[in-house]
Every structure is written in structure tokens, then in C-alpha cells.
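Comment thread on ticket #2218

A.B. wrote:
> Attaching the input chain for the structure job we discussed in standup.
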Amino acid sequence: MRRAVLFATGALLALVIAGPAHATTDPLALCHKTIVQQLLKYEKTYLKMHVKCIDNENKGTIPGPCPDATAAAKISLANSKVRAKIAQKCTLAQITTLGFRSDCAYESATVGREGQCAALPVTSADEFAECLKCWKGAEAGELIALLYASHALEVCGGSLDESSPLCSDLDCTTPLPEQHDLGDTGENDCQRKISKAGVLYALKRQKTIEKCLLAGGNKASCLADPVVQLKLGKAETQKQTVIKNKCGNRAPSPTTSFCCQCGTGNQCMLIADRATCAATSGCDVQEGKSCDGGTLKCTPGPHTVTWWGNCPESDTCPGPALATLDDLIACVDSSADAITDELLGLQFPTSYPVPTDGPDMTPTPTPTSTP
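C.D. wrote:
> Ran it. Output below, let me know if you need it in another format.
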């Protein structure tokens, strides 16, 4: 009797162990899981390196532009590892069976970074990995440019429309926020938390929905799943809390004040732009302050953060007007959701469809430099 119980127990244990093992070793499922997990690793590295670089550039510890050589090297290393891993676990036949395109034209793009991605060949698993990483990087660049409004042109290579050589296009970018380093200031502390919270929210949203989709769900069932909703709600609450704790009552504004402090004390000069101030002997730019025209002393300026005046990710331009910190948070929400939806649609072509060309369908041309 004891031997029979032990045999039954052993058989049950073998089934418990064998069940998950069989599921994870299915070649097609393993291929898809590898694609999703490796692309997320690449995206994490891309975002992390850009965030770290711009934060240091703002504080003046590196000269920029970003990504610098250190950041670019780490992104390149991640790129090589991810490509090799996908090529190791997937065949082109498996990739086709999973519903992926036989080319890289995921949007009808002909110029800029998206045009470069769309033109890539897909004749092997290795090329397929390069294709999806190209689109992944372009969308990640768009997210960084949106979150770091004061460095948007730098992140996207001098242009924010379809001609951008580095990013997917932002839809509505007029008026363009001032492009400048924020310094080691309270405004920069706020900006750092906006970017950190926005990136973390986007990654958590992707990972949560990806897990559901890999388990066999689709767009409708996953977004309606109570567990998914709970996790997304927690991610949203965390994002709001982080931004509000550091930004206080700062309001988003495309233009922010500065004081051109010259000489000793708070003496200042009434100078129109930061570049002229920085080039004036004996003068330094003081962010978040203004020069009082009567006393010619630097005084505290409006409590703002350099950001978009209208949400740049929108179906119609101009996007929703942004006047308060809550408006800014709502814009981060909708923008991160739109960008992650495009990435999910890229990785789950049959179970997570997105509209053709997504929200980047009719972008508004924007200036290539600050007026």
C-alpha cells in the first residue's frame, strides 16, 4: 500500500513537473517568448542609457549630445546579444507561422528612421531581429523625446517629424519647448522624475500585457482581465505619486524663466536668451529665476518645468492643452499607452492589432531648431 501511494505521488509529481516543461519547450511558443523577452531587454537598455545620459547632461557632468559614447556602446552590446538570442531560438518559418510580416514595412514610411526600418530585409531570423529592434528603438526614442521635452531635438537627431533620423515622429510639436540644459536645479529634479516615472510605467504596462498575450490572451481579453487591470492601476498610481512628490505644483510650460547673473551677488542683466548670457563674460545662466527690471537682481521665477504646451501624441493637432501638473500626467498616460500599443502590435501581430500606421499617421511638420 505504501509503495502504491509512493508510486502515485511520484507519478503526480512527474506530471506537475512535466506539464510546464512541455509548454515552455514547444518550439513555436519558445520562439515567440524569446522574441518578446529579448526585445523588452533591448528597450530597457535603450531607455535606461538615454535617461542616464540626459540626466548627466542636464547637470553638466557630461557635455552631450546623448547618447554619448558610453551609452551608445552599451546599447550596441545589448543589440548584438538580443539579435543573437532571437536567431538562436527562432527559424524564419516559425516567425512566419507566428503571423509576422515577410518584410519590415510595418508602417508605410518612406523617409527618416521609420523609412530606414521599413526598408530592412527580412530573409533570416537574424534580419527579422534587426527589423523589430529598429522599430523598437524608433518608438523608444519617441518616448524619450516626449518625456524630455527640453532635449527632444537632440534625442531625435534635429527633427521631430517623419524626417527624424532616430525616432518615430511625434504628432503635434508646436510650440516647440525651449531646448536647453536644466542645470542641477529643482526643475531638473522634477524632469528626472517625469522621465523615470514615464519609462517605468511604459515598461510595466508592456510587460503586464505581454505576459497575458503569451498565455494565449488577445487584446480585448487581456485589457479586460481583472489581474491585468489591477497591475496597470498600480503602475498608474505609482507614476502619479512619483511625479507629484517631486514636481509639487510645477506647471508645464514650453518657455521657462532664467536670470542672467553677472558679477557678484544677485546682480543681473536683462538678456533675451540663454546663449547670449552664457557667452557674456562674467555672466552665468540661473535657471528658474528672472531678472527684475527695476532692481536688476535675480529673483525667483514662475514655478514651471520645461515641457510641452500641448500633448504631442494626439490624433488631431494641436493636442490637448497642458496647463497643470495633472494635465502633464494625463499626457504621459495617453502617450505612453499609444506608444506601447504600437510596440505590442508589432510583437503580437495576430492577437494585438493596432490601427494601420497608428497615431503617427498624419504628423505635423515642426521646426528643426528653437526660434
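A.B. wrote:
> Thanks. Noting for the ticket: Residues 198 and 333 are 8 Å apart (CA to CA).
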